[in-house]
Amino acid sequence: MLQDLKKKVLEANLELPKRDLVIYTWGNVSAIDRDTGLVVIKPSGVAYEDLKAEELPVLDLEGNQVEGRLKPSSDTITHILLYQAFPEIGGVVHTHSPWCTVWAQAGKAIPSLGTTHADYFYGEIPITRKLTKEEINHNYEKNTGEVIIETFEDKNPSYMPGVLVNNHGPFNWGKTPQEAVSNAVIMEEIAKLAYYTQSLTDAVKPIDNSLLDKHFLRKNGNDSYYGQVTK
Amino acid sequence: MLQDLKKKVLEANLELPKRDLVIYTWGNVSAIDRDTGLVVIKPSGVAYEDLKAEELPVLDLEGNQVEGRLKPSSDTITHILLYQAFPEIGGVVHTHSPWCTVWAQAGKAIPSLGTTHADYFYGEIPITRKLTKEEINHNYEKNTGEVIIETFEDKNPSYMPGVLVNNHGPFNWGKTPQEAVSNAVIMEEIAKLAYYTQSLTDAVKPIDNSLLDKHFLRKNGNDSYYGQVTK
Amino acid sequence: MLQDLKKKVLEANLELPKRDLVIYTWGNVSAIDRDTGLVVIKPSGVAYEDLKAEELPVLDLEGNQVEGRLKPSSDTITHILLYQAFPEIGGVVHTHSPWCTVWAQAGKAIPSLGTTHADYFYGEIPITRKLTKEEINHNYEKNTGEVIIETFEDKNPSYMPGVLVNNHGPFNWGKTPQEAVSNAVIMEEIAKLAYYTQSLTDAVKPIDNSLLDKHFLRKNGNDSYYGQVTK
Amino acid sequence: MLQDLKKKVLEANLELPKRDLVIYTWGNVSAIDRDTGLVVIKPSGVAYEDLKAEELPVLDLEGNQVEGRLKPSSDTITHILLYQAFPEIGGVVHTHSPWCTVWAQAGKAIPSLGTTHADYFYGEIPITRKLTKEEINHNYEKNTGEVIIETFEDKNPSYMPGVLVNNHGPFNWGKTPQEAVSNAVIMEEIAKLAYYTQSLTDAVKPIDNSLLDKHFLRKNGNDSYYGQVTK
Fold first, then answer.
1. pLDDT tens digits, residue range B63-75?
2. Which of D185, D214, D229 sits opposite C136 (nearest CB)?
3. pLDDT band at A231 (very low <50, low <70, confident <90, very high)
4. What's the CATH number of domain B3-219, 3.40.50.620, 3.40.225.10, 3.90.1150.10, 3.40.190.10?
5. Which residue of B18, B21, B112, B113 is the best one to mutate when testing the D interface, meaning the one whose CB has the most D CBs within 10 A?
6. Which strand ranges, in their side-by-side order, compose the sheet holding C162-165?
């Protein structure tokens, strides 16, 4: 079942090493079929070159594996919580891509320092609070999902398609697994730009709201005028 | 019409991902046919691998589309204003190449710190002032062109084939779209060199005018003696 | 003899340039056959593309060459000392990979700043003390091995599969030569992340022990739950 | 004439883009035939992919072109002066490779901060003084050669196979054009390591002389014991 979605999840996972977001098995992409509420995700610890679409594990939104013999990614429960909390998303990706990981390790949100950022992320890219010792020791992966959702209490996941988990690394999402991955690629590029911009000048400030609005809204939302009309 | 120019514009656009100046659709190259005053430019939001020469949009210098069904780049009006203001140029390119974008986000001109810079750019590479809220909210792309032209009031675009748009990124130009792209590649390299040079020493100063003159003028202008004689 | 092991050592050596850990001949991988106590290692100063499995030198644990006409790596005695001191390891690798070399040249251990580090290295990655003038002038390569072993007096080499040699560069090991190389690749990535994390913030601290335990122990040791069950 | 040498010079020039030392035409390699005193060098401003061995210009040590219709590199006179001053060298290379250029632009010699440096360069890599206005305006390329030679008054070019020209970039040499290029590749790597090492710690000092001696002399000179015996 879900043959098409499995193919898309496979392709999206293969984008990760191709786009230099991961080495070895350091990342995973999933997608959800909203009709059935079933999630397809990368198996744990399997090399990208060995992945086969038909072998990808399938789980329901309670985390029960309903298909596939391979164990799903150890981050599966985090993905599932995001699908539960953010009904508008269809794909989730987690990597340890270097520039985002650097910001996560430094415990810093990524400020919006230019129009490249504003084209895709509507404001500062948030970072979660640190997990408590208790949250680390019991249900760590579930609590990772919970702390992301807590961070987004007052945020729109469509306007901010990514987050940094403190001391850890980035999670991204999108309407499809493909869009989730392109958001991860772009957040990595923006994290790099922000690092060097901050390093070049002490006086750097986030861009003005009018410029943020202009760039985000000309590419996203109802009045966008970027790209070809596809409707 | 303009078959040859369309091919050149296509090739110049394909140089952008090949030279690592862009990811996804983050850049655009145009060219002008000075006899007819017609401009060929990349369509908006189309992936480089899907571009076809015969489908490239053609516009006149008033911005009216005279050929092609695809919508032109959202930056088209900026390109057109540059062709109007700088009669000596034949190609324009805009990217978010990382090192130039870092300087643009930091709001800093790129000082001339060595002979590599002096070989191609005759002095500090300028940065525009920030646009006002009013200029951002109304006719943003037109005002982007205007602020570049304002920055060049006292400058020769043949001696300074590029600019940083504040908070945004680089624009470059040249006699041909190919030369515009090679100037973009070189400005990116120079932006990188300048970043690390400034980081290595607090005391760095622009090179002396005699060295700037020597290097720029041995490669450019009437008394140049670099390269093969091709006349 | 040791045909299979020689093939594995050849493949592991070829991973070094492929993974951008070395240029020219700047690295070497060895493996030990614990049954016979024989060590297979890269010959000295031979280009990776010219290596042939059947020509790899074989030595016993006293350092006597028992097979092969090519001279073994000048670092051979260091490798042999590690095999003597750490009976649980089966492969050793030495490179001058840039990020690890930077930390080694700075004379600094690599602090554990995030979960990527904790997934593979159980705490700060140690750096040896500097060798004395006497230790440099007499039996330099032997003393390099000795100072690594001294550094690990109170450490478990299975929980810390690598070290920085002061002013020099990294050594890594693993159960197999392949695992030694993947540990070298990962230590290089972690060294890069740590460099940029420290540069981004003055206030950076090692991660909490609970997070270190969680990540290291979910991937390593008896209660790990990462990857597929292969027993 | 000099067919073999021309082939070697061609190959050495092609190494420059392959090893990421140059973009476009930003570098040149030459070689000398010591029997005839003739120098083969890259033509000026010709793309690497268009170079043909038989078309490479040949000059004598007075700078007279004795073969070939293409104009030689504008840096030819600098190369020739080095061949005159350093009788032990057979190849010279000049590039604007980024890390060396950064040190040159910062006006700083590259300190010997680790064994990687010591393996190839016997001490700090020197930087020339700046040229005077007079030296820039008259016979610039000749004076570039002179200032390198002045810098080496008390140095052995075999023990220090490279130099930084102030505000400009690196020159390297070797017994052959191939060795000159590998020295350029290695100096670029060392310049990168030194940059990041200095950035990581304020307290960094050059390595001790005993370690410098050990590493340089085990790879170079009469008592070296690195690599295979080829005599």
1. 999 999 999 999 9
2. D214
3. very low
4. 3.40.225.10
5. B113
6. C65-67, C58-60, C38-41, C27-33, C91-95, C169-174, C162-165
